[in-house]
Amino acid sequence: MNSISPFYDETADFLESISKSHKVCIVSDADDAMIPYFYERYGVHLFTSERHQSYKNDNRNTMFKELLKFYRTNPKQVLHVGDSASDVLGANREGIVTCWINRNKRMWEHEVKPDYIVESLDEIEEMLVTRKN
């Protein structure tokens, strides 16, 4: 039985703000039915394991390759934000800039490091403004 993934308290406000100036998508190791439908309101494109028969940290990097192809962009123009090692490791392997949401102040235990570390989505908008300049 699939359950809908929870989203963080600041998610709706973050998407409302960030989707006005950036293209936003969801890359998830989930089935479509597990993703709350709030994302549709913001024009967010969905890349899921179900759709691509792949996971974020698999050796083929299918989901990240499909993301780059869909948006026709350079990996360095993409910021992948996630809260797991697979978010950072898979995106990094494809050359995508990574941001780890470390809400619990854990230690990063992998050789490949995220480009950025934040504790909430609220920190990302400021980071994106800084990155643009």
TrEMBL record:
Gene3D superfamilies the UniProt entry points to: HAD superfamily/HAD-like
One Pfam family here: Hydrolase_like
TM segment ranges: none
Keyword flag Hydrolase: yes
InterPro entries membership: HAD-like_hydrolase_sf, HAD-like_sf, HAD-SF_hydro_IA, HAD_sf
GO molecular function: hydrolase activity
SUPFAM superfamilies on file: HAD-like
Top-level taxon of origin: Bacteria
Alphabetized UniProt keyword annotations: Hydrolase
Protein name as catalogued: HAD family hydrolase
Species in which this protein is naturally found: Paenibacillus sophorae
